[in-house]
Design goal:
This protein has 194 residues and is mainly alpha-helical. It has 5 helices and 2 strands.
Length: 194
C-alpha cells in the first residue's frame, strides 16, 4: 500500500449477499466513528521518532537503578499478539493500549523525565488521534467485546487500580517498542497482518 493511502478494514456482517449465499464484507469506515481511518502512514516510524522513544526508555531505565521495585505481574504478556484478534478488533485493542500508555507517560512527564518525554508524547498523541477514527463508537446498548478482546480491554482498564505506579510505569515503558513496531504496524497493515 502506498504511503498516504487509506487503510480500509473489513468486517463480515450478518447481512446476506444479494444471492443470500454468504455474508457481505463492509468497510470499517462505514461504521459510526470510523470515518477517515488513515493508519498506513504508521507502518513504520521515522528513525528520529524511534530515537526519541529510545532516549526516553534509556532515561527511565537509569531512574530504575535508583528505585527498589519488584513487579511480578506482566500487564503486557509476551503471548499477547494483535494477530490473534479479528482485523476489526485490533484498532480497538491498540486504542486502549495507547490510551493507557498516554495516561501513564503524561503522569511521568511531571517528573524528572518531562523534557525527555515531550517528543514521544507528541508522537503518541498524533497516533492516538488518527487511531480514534478507526475505532467504532461504543454503543450504549448492544453487543460488547467478547473473548480475547474483552479480556485484554478489561486487563488494561483494571491495571491502574491493580498495579503500583512504579510497576505500571515499568510495564508501559518496556512495552513501548512492541507497541510502536509490532502492534501499530499490525493495525496499519490491516488484513495483511497475519
Amino acid at each position: 500500500m502506498a504511503p498516504g493511502c487509506t487503510l480500509v478494514l473489513v468486517l463480515m456482517t450478518a447481512a446476506p449477499s444479494r444471492t443470500g449465499a454468504a455474508p457481505v464484507p463492509s468497510p470499517l469506515g462505514a461504521l459510526p466513528g470510523a470515518r477517515g481511518c488513515h493508519m498506513a502512514q504508521f507502518k513504520s516510524l521515522s528513525p528520529q521518532e524511534l530515537q526519541a522513544f529510545k532516549r526516553a526508555k534509556d532515561a527511565f531505565e537509569e531512574s530504575l537503578l535508583q528505585k527498589d521495585w519488584d513487579c511480578s505481574s506482566r500487564l503486557f504478556p509476551r503471548t499477547r499478539d494483535l494477530r490473534q484478534l479479528q482485523v476489526w478488533e485490533r484498532p480497538v485493542a491498540l486504542e486502549a493500549e495507547l490510551a493507557l500508555t498516554l495516561n501513564v507517560l503524561e503522569a511521568m512527564a511531571n517528573s524528572s523525565l518531562d523534557h525527555i518525554l515531550d517528543q514521544p508524547l507528541h508522537t503518541l498523541h498524533h497516533i492516538h488521534s488518527k487511531l480514534q477514527a478507526c475505532v467504532p463508537a461504543q454503543p450504549t446498548a448492544g453487543p460488547r467485546p467478547r473473548g480475547r478482546l474483552h479480556h485484554w480491554l478489561h486487563r488494561l482498564q483494571d491495571a491502574p487500580k491493580k498495579e503500583s505506579r512504579d510497576c505500571l510505569e515499568a510495564s508501559v515503558m518496556f512495552n513501548l517498542f512492541r507497541l510502536l513496531t509490532r502492534d501499530l504496524k499490525c493495525v496499519a497493515s490491516g488484513d495483511q497482518c497475519v
